Amino acid sequence: MNAPEDSSRLPDASLVRLRPEILATPPYRQGKPAAADAFKLSSNENPFPPLPGVLDAIAASSNVNRYPDAAATALRERLAAQHGVTPNEVHVGSGSVALLAQFIQAAAGPGDEILYTWRSFEAYPGLVTVAGATSVQVPDTAEGRHDLDAMLAAITDRTRAVIVCSPNNPTGPVVTTDEFLRFMAAVPDTVLVLLDEAYAEFVRDESAVNGLALLGRFPNLVILRTFSKAYGLAGLRVGWAIGPEPILDAARATAIPLSVTGVAQAAAIASLDRSDELMARVDVIVERRNAVVSALRAQGWAIPETQSNFVWLATGEQTEAAADTLVEHGIVARPFVGSGIRISIGEAESVDKLLSAAEWIVQHLPSGHAARAIG
Ligand SMILES: *Cc1c(COP(=O)(O)O)cnc(C)c1O
After folding, report:
1. What's the whole-model pTM score?
2. Residue 303 Cβ < 6 Å to ligand 1
């Protein structure tokens, strides 16, 4: 083909017929990169660098001219043994977002509904749209909690899956075991329930649901976990699901083969070998979280009861101004315009900067603003 001679003859790519609902979907927006002297608290990453033994495992898996084990056999066997299930009841994906996409595609297509609370994880709406299905969003409570009764009431003949996110990203609260068991008792067995526990390791509330304690009890329940947050492997993309084999087989059928690299599998196994050391780091983050929450509440913030590695500031209409103030203080967080700001618990050195920015913001919020508990 000849190159076009002038710009008026450039081919018009907008003529290509694409799915309208995809064209209307914004591409994924990552948390902003932080300036060199700022703290990146926008993606709930682990502030600790990988352990030396994990780096050794990464270096040792250097045969990258070969495809990985598509079945992630060693990692699945390891997780299965740890949780008392068979390897076929474990599924591994390139991050638990990839797993969510697979389960949604396995369960739902055009005309089908996927139900979840809102506000919740920002990836859910796009995954549902890509599957061709319809999102049904049930508002969370004023405390940022799931309203499971309202979610039950929203189940219809078209509902194919319900996503329960505990602790909920971005607000922080958990679903309790009691709430979850009542919910499971009422959900039809024909509806898949995806319990997204990306932050499970940060939970210290004994009343919180723990999906791994419910294995084998429900024919329609799948638990999702990830190595990205507590285990600090966000850059390697590995997550896992545990649940009934036929449902996992359906997800495996939708997966893009060979997405979980050998490097990621090796690093995940090396991390499981070093769980004690990694969980000691999680304890540090949990302690830091609790200190940050107390300090923010003392400043007058109404902070939802977070059990994760982030806090939620319900800044409402003031969100953009508040996010700008954080940036001026060297903190890059995740603003959700018109709603609030999610701030990850990061490096120890970030805490003072965060608290002085938050102090300034609360003093400049109109009195009577919902984010101000007092004043
Ligand atoms: C971070 C997160 C995930 C997992 O992300 P991956 O890196 O893809 O494993 C899943 N669910 C929620 C709610 C999250 O916040």
Report:
1. 0.95
2. no
